[in-house]
Amino acid sequence: MREYKNNFIKADALFSKTLLSLAVVYSANTLSVTPTVSLPKGTSIGSTSFFDGFSGDSSGLTYLLYIQRENGTSLKDNEGKNAAPFDSPNLDVTIAINQIDYKFEPNESGNSFGITALLPVVSFDATFGSNGPTLYDNGTELGDLTISPYLQFSPVIKDGHPIFSHRAAVDVILPTGGYDADKDFNQSNNYVTLIPNWSFTILPAPRVEVSGRINYVYNFENSEPAGSSPMDWNGGAVSDTQAGQAFYMNFATSYEIFPGLRAGLNGYYLKQLTDDKVNGDTLADSKEEVLGVGPGVFWNSKDQNTNVWVNTYSESMVENRFRNELKLQFRIAQKF
Description:
- The protein is an all-beta fold.
- It has no helices and 19 strands.
């Protein structure tokens, strides 16, 4: 079976805690907030699933298209409760991602180097009730460019069939997308992110596969924090912010119903490990967490040059980010 590398992407419950650590202070005519700090857009959370440890039987070029839809219906605080003082927050995100992947010929050990690049188009539609503050989005713009070199290891073969395949990569998210310093929701992170990751697939029994991707996220400083309201930190100006370090894992398992078609369960879990920073100071209680789980299907053509994934998720255990009541993804890979 030929499967293709889907090296990351974000659909990612895109915009985490935007203004969650939101210390809102009302006066007669003003609203001051702590700066927006969130984990990066452009990660692969929820974007990779079935057969993630494989990247195809042959070298060459593969094109992937992702269509993702997220419906954020509540904004959670650090205790998982609805964040005050917002009234009926809602964030709909639509994402179209183009990905190009190239894998080189295998070396003498059977391992193959490769590189992949992706560029998303991200559209926001944020609405808030009139009985609380309103946050503003940046409409539709290009997102950040992600480049990822990787090493696909030779699969482990037993009785003529692969039983284990894995890959190591480093995703580099570059701040090339749309960014308006006067908006709360932007397509670009406006900072560089590094994500070393390891993907694997195990075939433990006939018709059964189990896959996962383990990721570590390190974020650099944002020297121009964005927000639609005046930002204040300890009575002074905000010069920079830095999102905390994080761990997340995508996981999936499927069963072959008949040749070419599989159904199964897919999910992801994210845990932020360190608090965010503002002007080098720790922003207390700013760590994010989320669990997303749902059904999915996978189809591949007889010639194994075309693969299709459909994944759905509903989120729980949400802290310091929007909760997506429903997250949908359609993905297709075409080998050339």
